[in-house]
Amino acid sequence: MPQFLTLSVSFIEYVVPKIRLLSPEVRSKIAAGEVIIRPSSVIKELVENSLDAGARRIEIEIEAGGKKKCLVNDNGCGMSREDAILSVERYATSKINNIEDIENISTFGFRGEALASIAQVSHFELETSNGEEGTRILIEGGEVKKIIQIYREKGTRIKVSSLFFNLPARLKFLKSDEYERRLIVDVVKTYSLISPEVQFILNEGNRILLSTPVVNDLKLRLHQLYSEELTRKLLPFELKVGEITFSGFISSPDFNEKHNLSYIFINNRPVKYPRLFRIISEVYQQPKSPPAFLLNIVVPPSMIDVNIHPTKNEVKIKEERYVVDILTQGIKKLIHPGSSPVDFIPLISRNGKEITNTKFVQEPLVPYQETQSKTVSTARENVEFWQLHNTYILAQTASGMIIVDQHVAHERILYEAILNNRASSQRLLFPITLELTPEEYKVYDKVKDTLLSMGLDFKEFSGRTLVIDTLPADSRATREDLRELFDDIGTPGVPMNDRKEIAKVIACKMAIKAGQRLSQLEMQSLIDQLFACENPFICPHGRPIVIKISLDELGSRFGR
Ligand code: ADP
Ligand code: MG
């Protein structure tokens, strides 16, 4: 992969990469779509481009909440005339070349779609210079009107006026100036929080909406944007575990004010990650108001999927359970120091390589959910879990022990969730493209409506190409599993109009497999969900899920 500029401070030396058009093959794999839905999406894309271009000063001007005008002016690397002309083409990007590059993405952008999409739906003016030649390009509704040579200092200025002038339906969907302005302020604030080394200025008319001079650390940036009261209550947080680093600030448990500081970044990319938000709040054990936090999780790029959604603010950590475990324990240690005995938890990555040997506070596992049934809580005082051969979960119960087969347990959970319409969906960062065989396509065609109703979603392309972009939440399915899904549904004897049969196949393909390592939290969650099922003991195919061994039985076998 060429030397691209990174998102953080440390990119003094880099070669300005050239813009190229992505090959049709790569295009199909990053199957994106519309990303520009309102003025704040324009600002987000332009600010990301400025940061990717290494800008240290980003000036933003808006009018009428961005509906009339969004202007972003930066002092980044700028573009040559040739690159400027290419930059407004769809799938033109300097940030990736081939599909493998996505695995190692270190820039905000990579789809090469934003400028083209914006220029399609606005009056678009691009002025740029790489320090050698300056270029101005005018585009109206996607039509290039003018390309001229200009003089300007190094950097890029993009003015987007009359957004959606040619899309009245989209225009109608926009809200008040006030509302749209608030979203823009939010976007700029978010990016300014992850780049204290960059000066941001956001104006509307003569009104300065946000101004953050360059500072050299995040704490000072927080001071620029939040009240003294809040920043005083923030505890710095830094935890390095193997290749993963967590850093940021978290409010102390006695902080009880209203606030709007709750940010998660992964590799500096602002993300929506409801699960992590929930986990952080849970550690505080029912606070009066939610904790304030800003957390940046830095992981090797290959450990995350950023291709779930075109707006790129959804990502998925591939080793999510570890990250959740480490985070929970790290925060607990920070906010309740000296609370518990220290235990040694070696974390082993799925490929068997040891990630770390760090010491953690081993707390009692997450508090029980109120929803637990009586049988479960009596069966599970003093909970601890062990995983045997990455396949079975062993747990102590009041009267002895249980052994649970993790795959069939998850299968049962998913099966009931699907049939009771409780399965929520998760959007994939990297939609999975399948070229179906004629047989598979026939099966797909018959069952697609059922699949849709069960939490999957997909787009059909020409021929027999299927892009699957949504799966039931918590799915562990790989591309192979999805391919097998159609084969299995098409097995002679499986009635394709029987929802239960199809749900069985989906549950089986999406479930945790034997051989997958699970964290304590994962095991806990699996067991909790299993015992909340109507039938926790038998899997949809009729195999046992739980084997119980009583203390009496153990005693008699040991001749007690
Ligand atoms: P992407 O960011 O996904 O590559 P965009 O459509 O946002 O796609 O931008 C296309 C290309 O134009 C980028 O890859 C980059 O090379 C160039 N570009 C866009 N904005 C700027 C900017 N502010 N400064 C320098 N180059 C830019
Ligand atoms: Mg971009």
Tell me the fraction of residues in β-strands, as a range: 25-35%
Radius of gyration over all CA atoms, rounded = 26 Å
Number of helices: 18
Mean pLDDT: 81
Class from secondary-structure proportions = alpha+beta
> Major sheet: order of its strands?
7-6-5-8-3-2-9-10
Low-confidence stretches: 1-13, 340-383
Helix fraction, binned, reads 25-40%
Main β sheet profile: 8 strands, mixed
**Tell me, what's the shape?**
globular
Tell me the total number of β-strands: 28
In whole angstroms, how far apart are the ends? 65 Å
The small molecules bound here are:
adenosine-5'-diphosphate, magnesium ion
Textual characterization of the structure:
By secondary structure, this protein is an alpha+beta fold. Helix 2 (39-52) packs parallel to helix 7 (177-194), helix 10 packs parallel to helix 11 and helix 13 packs across helix 16 (499-510). Strands 7-6-5-8-3-2-9-10 form an 8-stranded mixed sheet. The longest helix has 18 residues, at 177-194. The radius of gyration is 26 Å and the shape is globular. It starts with 19 loop residues before the first strand and ends with a helix. Strand 5 (123-129) and strand 6 (134-140) form a beta hairpin. 32% of the residues lie in helices and 26% in strands. It is built from 18 helices and 28 strands. The chain binds adenosine-5'-diphosphate (ADP) and magnesium ion. Adenosine-5'-diphosphate is lined by residues 19, 45, 49-50, 53, 74, 76-79, 87, 92-95, 109-116, 156. Magnesium ion binds next to helix 2.
